[in-house]
Amino acid sequence: MQPPSSPVSPIQYSAVTDREFSRSPEIEHDSITPAKTQARAIVVTEQKRDGSDDGSGRYDSKPARPHFIWWYETTCCFLAVGALVGTVAMVWSFDHRPLPHWPYELSINTFIAAFSVLLKTSAGLVLAESISHIKWTELKQPRSLRSFTVHDDASRGPWGAFALLWNDKGRHISSLGALIIILILFMEPFTQQIVSFYDCVEVDRLETGKIPRTNFYVQETGFNMGGASNVPWALRNSINQGLFATNKPQLDISCDSGNCTFSGTYSSLAFCSVCKDISSELVSEPWPNPRNITPVPNQFRYPNMTLRIRPGAQSNLSLALPAGEGMVEETRRTLVAQGFPMIDVIRSLDNKNYVAHSCNVSACMQTYEAMVRSSKLEETVVDEHLIPRSTEFGYYRVADLECIQESKKQQLSEMGYNLEANPRWLPYNVSVFYNVTEERNTFQGSCQYVPADKVDKFCDKNKRKIANKYLSLSDDAAQIVPADCVYSMSDTAGNTLYTSVFRDLFKGELLERGTSNPPALFGPEPLMAIRHAGSGNGTLKDMSDLMRNISNSLTTYVRQHGNVNMSNPMLGTVTRNTVCIRVQWPWVAFSAAIVLLTLVFFLYVVVKARGDQAELRRAWETEGVHAPFYDFKSSALALLFHGLDDDSRRQLIDVGSTNRTAEMAKRSKDVKIQLVATERGWKLATVGTHNGLS
């Protein structure tokens, strides 16, 4: 089967006479210039089978239209710019953000490396082709054959680029291309420095941190047959933990990652303790001689005075001091305490010194700042406020004025509340309960303090009276303060601690026996805890810290056992320890500089090469015949088909006969060549006389 016939016939050559091609090259001043001599050039045409001439890339009677020969390189320029933009866009989107988790364990450096390879390859091709084209366009004037070779080597790799820099010494634009080729060598290691990593935290959008708090606490207690209240064992245990345990009870927080942040402050019902030194309030009175005998000698430890609390307490608390050192059989009281109505302690420090402390553990409001770090709650109390007890209605209740608007505060002021004396925590007489059946909050309050001229505005005379004597507030007046801003604790929860726990817990005396140092102690364990609290020296700080341990333990219990419908936890943000990305923009600037220099170099080469080709073609034009364009660049075919012409090869036969590259390179220094037009298109022709070579 024969192949289909081509529409273009084989190339036909026809000699050009003086009339057809009036100028031919001649050597003038070591350069070849067209002259009106016998033609050395031959017109080359391609004839189609219909007899017409194509003239594309050949001498033609028509001026050839300029055509763009840089499509491939231009595409590579766009790829290089795209790789740079892709790198910048990617690292910018992850700057100071957590390290992404991509499939197949791909990392951000993988994509940076990919963009780097694309940029390096694209820019390298543009540079190689541009330098290769320069080696041809520069031959419009005679150039050293070595210069041609050096440019060719520079287009093939960094070593050739270094040789070009050394040869040109920066005098030619090709030196810039060679420099960029060398700089590209450092792109891969430098691009790996674009991102660095540091430890950071990542917000978990799917989880929420929670810290217990409560607005409403009613102690679950009853009364036995004897009338004594039954305090829940869990509550008693929390007191014992605060008194004896080294590791205090912790809140049951919710923080899945172990690291959570909580913005702002939050408040909760709590227990606070206040201790003061009452040593100055003690009264001393002589201890009578029980036998009415001659005073006992000083070597016996016999007490001679008593200390007791001032009248007004439910019972006196006395502690006797010894008169001096005695015998081993002596026994004396070193600490006495009572737990109702306050926790009072008198302690002997030595034979002449004593101290007395009085502490109160009561319901209060506490405001906190908190964070969770490494699964450990770091909570700081920023404000404390004791809640006054309403003896008439039996409750501890306050309203948080920071929760309400100024207009609501004005209404509270009209209702008779003293907002100046209570700028934030206002003693409040409106109770809030959650109606489980109706699933809503209910409000009930009395008009006990409402001025007479405001009764019609805030009170509802149709409602049942409170305690059979106070009008009830209207629904609107009772709801001035939202339920979330009202904090309430039942009277049994606050007062039962003393009547049912502290009364018996902190009661009794510690006895000191013997003369050993330290002497042996005997007595209840709670008083032992007081005796050895803190430094063991009986300071006010030691006592305050012990009572604070108890109140903190009670607070933990209350915050976790408040009314479930009125104990919204404090919500926070869950964070996870991870690795974040930091972009080092100076290293990005290196890649950007490579791209920018490549574009500048390429644009210059395109413009310069176009002008050089136009100048060369004009030099070889004759009337009616025009020289063709060429796009030789780095193609080996260009050198094979458009290398030295026959005359030049004959002149350089000695050079060509050697098979040693080093020898050819040495002799090429003395050879000058120039691009000329011949019967076989553009050719390289030697210029001048080459001693020893012809």
Automatic annotation (TrEMBL):
The chain crosses the membrane at residues 68-94, 106-128, 173-190, 585-607. Residues 17-31 have a biased composition (Basic and acidic residues). This is Uncharacterized protein. It comes from the Eukaryota. InterPro entries: DUF3176. Residues 1-40 are annotated as: Disordered. Pfam families: DUF3176. Keywords: Membrane, Transmembrane, Transmembrane helix. Signal peptide: none annotated.
